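Internal tracking record. Fields below are filled automatically when a chain is submitted to the structure queue. Please do not edit lines marked as system-generated. If the sequence contains nonstandard residues, flag them in the REMARKS field before resubmitting.
Queue: standard
Priority: normal
Entity type: single polypeptide chain
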Amino acid sequence: MKMHRLKDGCFSASYNDDIYASVTLYFHNRCAKAHKLRIRPLSNAADTKTVTISGHAKGSTRYWNWASGFDIDDMGRA
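SYSTEM-GENERATED OUTPUT FOLLOWS
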């Protein structure tokens, strides 16, 4: 079991790889303005999501049949 931490621009994110069937990615917008966050699972690019996160907001998203890591990108202001 390992905790993974990611950072890009205004965003920080983390996930735990101890469950093979699903994984929840937690994210936090550390900036005051809303930004777009792109979440890309390394095992399946078709599951890429882009979400708009308000300033200083936190959230999460769950992925099923997870088999690899994630990459996150701050896509700029919303």
